[in-house]
Amino acid sequence: MATRWGLCGAGKISHDFSVAMKTLPPGDHQIVVIASRSMERAKDFAKKHGIPKAYGSYEELANSTDIDIVYLGVLHTEHWRVGLLFLKAGKNVLCEKPFAMNSTQVKDLIAAAKKNNVFLMEAIWSRCFPVHAEVRRLLAEEAIGEVKLVKAYFGSPQLHISRSVEKELGGGALLDIGVYCLQFVLMVFNGERPESIQATGVLLDSGVDESVVVVMKFSRKRMAFCAFSIAARLPNDAVISGTKGSIKVLGPMHCPTTLVVNDKETEYPLPEPSLPLNFTNSTGLRYEAEEVRQCLLKGLKESPRMPLADSVLLTEIMDEIRKQVGVVFSQDSQ
User: Fold this and answer.
1) How do residues 305-321 score in pLDDT, each as one tens digit?
2) DSSP of 165-226, one letter per residue?
3) pTM
4) Residues in contact with 112: Cβ distance below 8 Å, sequence separation at least 6, in sequence order
5) Are 317 and 194 in contact (CB under 8 A)?
6) What reaction(s) does this enzyme catalyze (predicted)?
7) What is the per-residue DSSP string for 85-103?
């Protein structure tokens, strides 16, 4: 039986997700419905992607009986409210990153998933890429000895994009792209909580972070360094340095196709898209869709690749970084 998907939100990421789905066997995955707050947008989207059903409200999707999982692709300021709507309706949910605006909201979503006994995953698609799977395998067999330092960079000029710069839209480098650097560090250190976090950054006039540098110290004298910016392009790679060698994930590190282990390079090519994409390497969203399918087939309520505990820790670290850098959202006082 195919996994039946319901898409929530008819924006850019839902478009890319739908295109990625076309690279998977139709016997495994079907998008059966698209829901938008605008019926017109939903219908246009359905026509473009060959989706049989369109809804003009999220509530209709929440009440739908012919879906196995909801892909939540709305703006992250809405993840908490709309996510709770689906979870309370007993729906499995794959929620786009960042999971929510702060760790309080994330814990609310997780509590609702547990109460309703449904699957929930933050869509950190990076974790599902073959490159990341290989990184985890190499680390497990200590291929580069003991890890001493992890570096991750992500910079992308986005000051012209309103959702990146406006506080009301949950803007800033941290929640949009910094999250990828931090999740990579947590993956390398197996979801361990850092002993210390030091962050400094510069803000835009709107009060969101433009560029941030973070240094974290972990147990056993291990360190991590992250730099991210929405004002400038950075190398966008990630390097793990150990006592016996190094692992380098070439840019774009958040959706990588090239891995270099002690100077030996391996390519992991992606399938070509059938329609133009909005974001880099988006056919790689297929990996997270397949990860969700496998979890549902096994009856799991969370993904071992991106456990809910990792999402909580990730958001708690982001809360602390925002505190140090001075970014406050209205959601923080709710």
Assistant:
1) 999 999 999 999 999 99
2) H-GGGT-SHIIIIIHHHHHHHHHHTTTPPPSEEEEEEEE-TTSSEEEEEEEEEETTTEEEEE
3) 0.98
4) 83, 84, 87, 88
5) yes
6) D-xylose + NADP(+) = D-xylono-1,5-lactone + NADPH + H(+); (1R,2R)-1,2-dihydrobenzene-1,2-diol + NADP(+) = catechol + NADPH + H(+)
7) HHHHTT-EEEEESS-SSSH
